[in-house]
Design goal:
248 residues; 2 domains; Ribosomal Protein L22, Chain A; three-stranded antiparallel β-sheet; 12 strands; alpha+beta
Length: 248
Amino acid sequence: MTGVHTAELSVHLATLQSPADASPPPLGDDHVQVWQVFQPAMMPHLAEFSGSLSHSEAQRASRFRFDKDRNQFTIARGLLRTLLGQYLGTSATEIEFAFSEKGKPSVAGPAVSNLQFNVAHSGELILLAFSRGRRLGVDIEQVRTDFATAEIADRFFSKSEVQCLQSIPASDRHEAFFRCWTRKEAYIKATGDGLSLPLHQFDVTLRAGEPAHLLATRPDPSEAERWAMYHLHVQPGYAAALVVERLR
């Protein structure tokens, strides 16, 4: 695992090559573990992942129109179950989930614990993040140059973020947009508020080389200090971010 260490947290990013490698090291209270998965490498294990899904998950998978989307869901959910089983010392098939009012999942049933997790996927990559007792959110996006970044930023980003994006050279603007987008998505996933928290209601950094940081939150400015934000160095062509709750 590669890692980022701060005074408060150690964040480790590792690449999972196969389900057999899903043997995580001990997860302490001040550690976050993020697993990066290349989806095509997991296709030989698709039947295994499918067999670990609950009845409701299998039904959900069957409703996807395209094989690509169905396979992505099956692999991501199967890997989540596999890793949760390793952390909790139980079978992947025995994991049960509960969902908040706004849809954020947590471990329920006999294996209920303080283990927190979040999943994101884009293109051919999947990210799975885990911590103990700290809410967290992770997001990944494939950087696309055919994306209407200016229009979407004007609609969803804060005024200061739009101004910052416009000041960046056009050749670097798409990457900056996706840095901003993933950091904002990771934050709203960590809070559990989802899109009920407007994206323009908080500011994040987005320039290349600038540390990932939650700059301001509105209407409560103290909220920004409750969260740590990290840039994740994943595969080229992708932007990814992690947001973790600070415990006091």
